[in-house]
Amino acid sequence: MAAPSSLLFFTSSLNLPLSNETLRGNGAEEEAEWKSKGETKKEKQLVGEKGHVKPTNFLDSHEKFLLGVATKGVVKLFNAVNKAQNAQKGLNPSRFKDAKGMLNR
């Protein structure tokens, strides 16, 4: 049994060969559908933003500086807490030396 030189696609009910245009669909219809979806998406976004006002000068230089200082402080705090927790992992509170060491921290 030899393979046909061109591939034919058949519909399930009528077994009629389909052309390439039928397989790809109509480009104009798809394009119109994409445009309508895009328009509805833009409308939804505009409705969601209705009444919202973006500040003209959202973060000035001083606020940016303070934000950076706060971030660095929080990082230092978390690192210190993590270091203290890891130091206490191997300690046994039932031993006197370990309990004394835990109280000093």
Automatic annotation (TrEMBL):
Residues 33-49 have a biased composition (Basic and acidic residues). The lineage of its organism: Eukaryota, Viridiplantae, Streptophyta, Embryophyta, Tracheophyta. One of its GO terms (cellular component) is preribosome, large subunit precursor. One of its GO terms (biological process) is maturation of LSU-rRNA. This is RRP15-like protein. Belongs to the RRP15 family. InterPro entries: Rrp15. It holds the Pfam family Rrp15p. Residues 21-49 are annotated as: Disordered.
